[in-house]
Write the structure tokens for this entry.
Amino acid sequence: MPVNWRRFQAVLKNDRERRWNDEHYVYCVAWRNIRDWVIAQIALYETQIVELPQVFLPFATNKSGKTLYEQVNDGQFLLGEGKAGR
């Protein structure tokens, strides 16, 4: 799972969090948030509310390490106009 802890650090700085400049602290808290999110997603899967691909597919990576989400966001995964016969 990717985690952009530097962006998280900027949020903490804007919120005037006392330890925003402690990189180890920020990194650990960012990963703790990811862990909590993963635990919540697993709970949804275990209760059969979702399938695993529904929640984790956007984080699948290609050979260059780009996630599926990043590819879609960059316009590299276009679906086309939706017209039949194309």
